[in-house]
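Bug report (template v2)

What were you trying to do?
Predict the complex of my protein with zinc ion.

What happened?
Run completed; filing so the output is reviewed.

Input:
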Amino acid sequence: MDLRDEARKAQQTARDEILSSKSLDDLKSARTKHLGRKGVLTLLLRKLGQAAPDERKELGRLLNEAKDELLGLVDSRTDELKQATYASDLTGESLDVTLPGRKFRTGRRNLAVEMMNKIVDVFVGMGFTSVEGPEIETEYNNFDALNFPAWHPSRDDHDSFYVGEGHVLRTHTSPAQIRVMKSQPPPVRVVVPGRCHRRDTPDASHLMSFLQIEGLYVDHDVSMADLKGTLAAFAREIYGEETKVRFRPHFFPFTEPSAELDISCLVCGGKGCRLCKQSGWLEVLGCGMVHPNVYKHVGYDSLGVTGYAFGMGVERVAMLKYGIGDIRMLYDNDLRFLSQF
Ligand SMILES: [Zn+2]
């Protein structure tokens, strides 16, 4: 057999082995066997010297072409075998890349805080400014300046949290009225959202810590009609266009006259049911015209101004809107309950 036949035969054998290799290891040994330093083709190239000079050139070209072809085959077979390995890895492991990912639960504000922000938005829309006051308040701002008499039960140790000489955890956000009026001349039109504290035993309608929003509007010629119009607009905004309101005489130390705002029952619409105790009305908040004694404490008494104030429990507003029977459910942190809203 002359060298030319030997070369053709070696090329064919190498080609078959490369193409039929079943793994990257098989392919590597086939490459070494045929194309390595001691490989068949390499040995043939070394034998070129034995060939007749006129054949040497043609044979050299033939062997180099064979080597190029085989190296190309090794590369393409390597790619094929790698692809097959990835595919079998994917099917071999129990990984389903088409499964949707696990849902990430994002947190959100508590329902009561959401309601507080919503109420503030309603009043800001009517020209009020939102301001805040401190939770530790002076006894003077919390009681005296708001015309709370010495005998008032909330001044008792058993009803409020006193924190050192002359200070109390505010029992309402109303003391911010005093701070605002002392810091600026009229007109004043503010709402004060925030947390308050009282020594109440928690039950279905009381907590030791709760949210309140106070409102105050003081200017020349502010009347009870302005108060009624503003709170009626608020009630319709929160509870719906059909909501009716009524103002019932009441008593608060810092307003005169004072009233409570009722809305038509959200369940029966006013006909009478268990929720409204057959009255057709639900109590929402307290309000009234600012007491002249309050103006004396802030230096407004000689200015001839009038004004109104109101205060509401945020949790109560939310409970009425969503039909929640127990205030404690808002803070029990039961996500099954809270995520309904
Ligand atoms: Zn009712």
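What did the reviewer find?
The chain has a mean pLDDT of 90. The chain is about 40% helix and 20% strand.
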